[in-house]
Design brief:
The structure is a single chain. This protein is about 35% helix and about 20% strand. The chain has about 220 residues and is of the alpha/beta class. The chain has a single domain, classed as NAD(P)-binding Rossmann-like Domain (Rossmann fold, 3-Layer(aba) Sandwich). The longest helix has 18 residues. The N and C termini lie far apart (about 35 Å). The protein binds NADP nicotinamide-adenine-dinucleotide phosphate (NAP). NADP nicotinamide-adenine-dinucleotide phosphate binds next to helix 1.
C-alpha cells in the first residue's frame, strides 16, 4: 500500500518506520523537507531519516500524490490545514491519530474541541469526500507500531469512523502491527470519547511516571 504520513514528529517517525518495515511504500509529509531534514539532534527528523533511507520525504502536496492512505500525525490545531494541503483523491482513507490538545491554559493541556464535537469530526466535515478513521490516539507513539512490547499487546485499541470498509482496512493494518484487541466504537462521533480519553491519559502519565501504558477494556 502507498502511505503518506503527515508529520515528522515522534508519531510520524514511529508510524512511518513501522509501516515501511511491513513492506508499505511510505512517504513522510512535511511543511519543508530541507528544514525537517536539518534537525539532526537526537530524535530529530533528519537523524531518523538517515536511518530510514527507504522512506521518502516531501511537502504535503507531493507526499500524498496517489496515496491509498494518509496518516494525520500533525498537531491537532494544524490538522485541518495539513490535510487540506494534501493531494488526495475522493475516497482516500485518512487515519487520524492526532489529539486536539491546547496547552495555552497551562498544564495539563485542555481540548480545543470536545463533548459535542471532535477533531476527527472536524476533519470529516471539512473533507466529506475523504474517509476519516480515528485510531491510536490513546497510546504513546512507540506502542502504535510495537504493541507487543507492552504486556505482549494485551490492551485495547479503538477505531471509529463512518465508513466500514475504511475501518476494516485500518483494522487490518493494526492487526498486522500486532494490535490484539481492536474495538470498533462505531461512527466518527465516537471520536469525542477517544479524544476525551486524553484528559485521563495525561493525568495517568504523571501518576505512572512513564508514557508506556494505555487502556485495556476488561470484559
Ligand atoms: N507523541 C505521542 O506519543 C502521541 C500519541 C498519540 C497521539 N499523539 C498526537 O499525534 C499528533 C502528532 O504527535 P507528535 O508528538 O508527533 O507531534 P509534534 O512533534 O508536535 O508535531 C508533528 C509535526 O507536525 C509539524 N507541525 C508542527 N506545527 C505545525 C503547524 N503549525 N502546521 C503544520 N505542521 C506542523 C512538524 O513537522 P514539520 O516541521 O516537519 O512540518 C512536526 O514535526 C499530535 O496531534 C499528538 O497530539 C501523539
Amino acid at each position: 500500500m502507498r502511505i503518506a504520513v503527515l508529520g515528522t514528529g515522534m508519531v510520524g517517525q514511529s508510524l512511518a518506520g513501522g509501516l515501511a518495515e511491513r513492506g508499505h511504500e511510505v512517504v513522510v509529509g512535511t511543511r519543508d523537507p530541507a528544514t525537517s531534514l536539518a534537525r539532526t539532534d537526537p530524535g530529530g527528523f533528519g537523524t531518523w531519516a538517515g536511518t530510514h533511507p527507504a522512506v521518502g520525504v516531501a511537502r504535503f502536496a507531493e507526499a500524498t500524490v496517489d496515496a491509498d492512505l494518509v496518516v494525520n500525525a500533525l498537531p491537532g490545531e494544524a490538522s485541518v490545514a495539513g490535510v487540506g494541503a494534501a493531494t488526495v483523491a475522493d475516497g482516500t482513507i485518512v487515519l487520524d491519530v492526532a489529539n486536539p490538545l491546547d496547552a495555552g491554559h497551562g498544564m495539563p493541556p485542555t481540548l480545543f474541541v470536545a463533548n459535542t464535537d471532535s477533531l476527527a469530526e472536524q476533519l470529516q466535515r471539512t473533507f466529506p469526500a475523504l474517509r476519516v478513521v480515528k485510531s491510536l490516539n490513546t497510546m504513546t507513539a512507540p506502542l502504535m507500531v510495537t504493541p507487543r512490547e507492552l504486556a505482549d499487546g494485551d490492551f485495547s485499541t479503538f477505531v471509529c469512523g463512518d465508513d466500514d470498509e475504511a475501518k476494516a482496512l485500518v483494522t487490518g493494518l493494526l492487526t498486522d502491527l500486532g494490535h490484539r484487541d481492536v474495538i470498533d466504537l462505531g461512527d466518527i462521533t465516537a471520536a469525542r470519547g477517544v479524544e476525551a480519553m486524553m484528559l485521563v491519559w495525561l493525568r495517568l502519565w504523571g501518576v505512572v511516571g512513564s508514557a508506556r501504558f494505555t487502556y485495556k477494556i476488561v470484559r
